[in-house]
Amino acid sequence: MLTFEETLHLHWGQVFKVRRTLLHERTEFQDLVVFESETFGRVLALDGVIQTTEADEAHYHEMLAHVPILAHGNARDVLIVGGGDGGILREVVKHPGVNATLVEIDPGVIEMSRKHLPSLSDGAFDHPRARVVIGDGAKFVAGAAETFDVIIVDSTDPHGPGAVLFSEAFYADCRRRLAPGGIMVTQNGVPFLQPDELGHGWRRLRSHFDDVWFYVTAVPTYLGGLMTLGWASLDPACRRQPVESIRSRFDALGLKTRYYTPDIHVGSFALPRYIQDLMAE
Ligand code: SAM
Question: Which residues line ligand 1 (CB under 6 A)?
Fold first, then answer.
């Protein structure tokens, strides 16, 4: 029986029993593998790191998309940096009236996702309110003139092409691209195993945004417990919305979710001591 071993961590990892490999290629930017697993459905890995699986992708995509948009309450323009598998885009366009711009550096990821992981984008790449730009997200925000109500950074980990999306210069440019009352959220790793990623995010975001915090989600194939999503906004009130107002906005959408609920939205900002301690350093 074939197996796939994730190589993100030196001394600890996860191994998937593989039913069949659907694609394995070296794109211009990274090593890309899609395989059918015994337990998690289809799985995408980039440079040996699990990016998303059919079984638990909603735990991540729903939280990275709906928390900032429902907290904002009146988002019209959303920028997604990375996100080439289409999962975030799929969730963002579910919000009526929201225009989504996705900036992905590697067209090979989009092509792969359309063909081998169609349930992730679920047609979102062709949605009338979706615009797909192929390019480096850092260069896009540095050069763009337009502003956004919400910026979602759905990047790989800080290695290879993704490293620049964890830089202070990128965060400063994102700050300039946010409209008044705007919110930026980021993929900020699993702090139990990637404590530096959280510390760096905390320090780099705080020098540019009025309100910086983290919120958490639980994604079984993002090894090591809770995953932190970075929160950076221009209006501290956004993070403190009462659950009643989040619930009325959510109920108005009539969305069927697999992980997100208004209570989880509000509760996800409560951080365990070990994560708060990393923010004190
Ligand atoms: N959910 C995954 C996670 O938490 O690790 C991330 C999923 S998505 C596949 C990450 C995407 O970021 C990849 O498609 C990758 O090509 C893209 N990416 C990496 N660096 C980028 C950059 N500088 N600009 C735009 N997209 C980038």
Answer: 29, 46, 51-52, 60, 81-85, 103-106, 109, 136-138, 154-156, 161-162, 164-165, 187
Active site residue 154: yes
* pTM, entire model: 0.97
| Chain-centroid distance, C-alpha 27 | 21
- Domain shared by 172 and 231, yes or no: yes
68 with 186, same domain: the answer is: yes
Atom of ligand 1 nearest to the CA of 165: 23
> How confident is the model over 17-73, as pLDDT tens digits?
999 999 999 999 999 999 999 999 999 999 999 999 999 999 999 999 999 999 999
Over residues 100-118, the pLDDT tens digits come to 999 999 999 999 999 999 9
**Same domain, residue pair 137 and 44:** no
The CA-based angle 224-227-228, given to 5 degrees, is 140
What share of residues in the chain are helix, strand, coil (percent, to 5)?
A: 35, 30, 35
Q: Which domain holds residue 15?
A: 3-53
Strand partners, 8: none
Ligand 1 pocket test, pick from 105, 109, 185, 228 with the greatest ligand atom count within 8 Å of Cβ, gives 105
Q: Which of 56, 149, 154, 157 is catalytic?
A: 154
Residue 156's CATH number: 3.40.50.150
